[in-house]
Amino acid sequence: MKTSHRARGTALAVVATAALTSCGSSSGPAADGTVTLSFLVDNSQATVDTAKALTDAFMQANPKIKIETETRPGGSEGDNIVKTRLSTGEMSDVLWYNSGSLLQALNPAQSLVDLTGDPVLANVQKDFLPVVSQSGKAYGVPAGTAMGGGILYNRKVYEKLGLEVPKTWDAFMANNEKIKAAGITPVISTFKDTWTSQLFVLGDFYNVQAAAPTFAQDYTAGKAKFATTPAALAGFQHLADVHAKGYLNEGFGSAIADQGLKMLVEGKGAHYPMLSAMLPPMVASTPQAATDVGFFGVPGTDPAKNGATIWEPAGLYIPKSTKNLEAAKKFLAFVASPAAAEAVNKVVQPAGPYRIQGAKLPDDAIQVAKDLQAYVDEGRTAPALEFLSPVKGPSLEQITVAVGSGLTPPAEGAAQYDKDVEKQAKQLGLAGW
Amino acid sequence: MTKQAAGLRTGPGQAGKQQGHARASRKRQRAAYPYTLYLPAAVVYLVIFLVPTVMAFYFALTRWTLFDSTFVGLDNFRDFFAEQNLRIGFVNTLFYAVVTSGLKVVLGLLLGVLLTSKLRLRGFLRSVVFFPVLVSTVAVGITFSALLRPDTGLVNRSLALFGIDGPDWLGDANTALLSVALVDVWKGVGFATVIYIAGILSIPRDYYQAVAVDGGGAWHRFRHVTLPLSWPATYSVIILSFIGGLRSFDLIWTMTRGGPGFTSDTIASIIYKQYQAGFFGLSTAGNVILFVVVTAIVVPLNYFLGKRQVAV
């Protein structure tokens, strides 16, 4: 009797431990030679649509390889899922993740497969590689298109009020005054989705580097600060200005990005500081989004130095934990080919230029992509700061919400952000902080 | 209890001895009973509570990227205390805990009295009051975010019927935290009510009869019988909801994410944001601090309230 009790208890304990430790694992090729690849992407509509177009086209060409896509949340919540899964060896065979500073935090040398010199990268534009590299080793291929970060504006409103695309911040504010007088919301803000509040600061980087060309290096080294560099402080000032003038939509504090885009497309709002990639998914439900909405870079002080800030496309990476390396590489090689761009063009409107040699925008590209292409063709673009420096403070979105809601003065917000950046740099263990 | 006392009175010497003997032998028997039955629970407790807790105290002293960790001593604690919004976080946490536990005590007691009185549909009303407790907190948060929307939300639409222009409840720095606290009360008051119902029903009817004999009314019954004798229930409600309030996170995160800006941040949301940012060592240090703070507040509170319980 006693032993049976004990035995049962032990058995229970074993079962419990087993249940706790066996939390899924990826499998190798099946008996009949078909390989199933798992593919982790973020859950934004643009990414999901692009991923579906890529996997469908790839599976049609390679019937022996099946790709199962799973989604994860975006933003810092998603960053954590990716980090946790990489560090526990539970990552999918291929993952879709940001390029630039966020990639550096994944510790690619330890967690991702090195693709340097691999034929997978044959079609990738050379000037894209630095944003998916660490210490000279490349780890990814571009997924989707580059995008612009600046002001999306409603062209119908501009036409109706006889306005011109502003080349300076003062001209922008003058436009806002006229738009407000016409009873339309001049600047849409959607602070419930906190990340959307950062565009006036991050999208202003073209103007920052035009005024202070060495800002990115000095900033990484801990020498340049947002609060003490007038050009960098301007972004925070702009954020405060549009709020102080009452240019924001009612209920901006609890609005979300989808509501903001809807307002813009319907012409209830004129300007929305946003990434151009947010627009293509709107085209399906509201076709006028393709023609009525245009793009211009956040205007600065000098009309002669007008330009736009560009976000590089995200990358596709292979974690070291994969058991299907060959199939995964095959998929990446396909993604980085003009054929993949064509497949995507059929399903998703590109939001900017491709970073693949030989890949072109379709003739019927949406207005936002054409406007951005014009900036690119004229060489009036700069990559966003997060592609030039590994340091990006995690609290920027809360600080910009506070500044943009009039809770924190702009200079104080910039100083808070400098402290936030310092914390990040210390946690990364960078030199000079 | 009463039976035992009666037995002792009739034959003190022998009965006591017999009982003592019986208790001792029962104890021996219980000791022989297999401890292995505790093992599964012990393993679960050890693996998913004790081990991580002990590890947390170590990782709080490191710079930890999940991939590797470097020992940095007390740096994380220094950085955590240097956090610019920490003061707001502490004030908000205390405010939230006090408001929610206070309202839960008051409303829970009133609902408890109401739902123990002779009432038509009493069983139905009891379930209605308890129902929000059963709903997932995240679902409640999302639902109320929709209800509290400034233009299309039901709350402001209803207020508009009376000519009141309601604020942007969750988007306005002045109302965000209070709105979340009120939703927390809505969700948690059912639990407090159940504790009070149990407490009130355990009060012997004799006291109420005594008040009736002395010619006291409803107010006297409440003031001099129900209120003092439901103290153990009050004590449980305060402790449980105060600890819940100090650790409050899920509702705040789903409704405001600590915003707008940092105005509704609590200690738990600050810690979570640091975790999200990948500052794992730093956020672990924050958790250790939260653990110490909650202990430092709740242990004396527990002691103080426990003493009152004995006194009454």
Structure commentary:
The complex is a heterodimer of chains A (433) and B (312). Chain A is α/β, with parallel strands linked by helices. Chain A has two domains: 35-146 and 313-361, D-Maltodextrin-Binding Protein, domain 2, CATH 3.40.190.10; 147-311 and 373-428, D-Maltodextrin-Binding Protein, domain 2 (3-Layer(aba) Sandwich), CATH 3.40.190.10. Chain A is built from 19 helices and 13 strands. In chain A, strands 7, 8, 9, 10, 11 and 13 form a six-stranded mixed sheet that branches. In chain A, strands 2-1-3-12-6 form a five-stranded mixed sheet. Chain A has a two-stranded antiparallel ribbon with strand order 4-5. In chain A, α2 links the parallel β1 (35-42) and β2. The model of chain A is unreliable at 9-26 (pLDDT under 50). Chain B has a single domain (85-311), classed as Orthogonal Bundle (MetI-like fold), CATH 1.10.3720.10. Chain B has a two-stranded antiparallel sheet. In chain B, α5 packs antiparallel against α12 (231-247). The longest helix of chain B has 32 residues, at 280-311. The chains are: A alpha/beta (433), B mainly alpha (312). At the A-B interface, α1, α3, α18 and α19 of A face α3 and α14 of B.
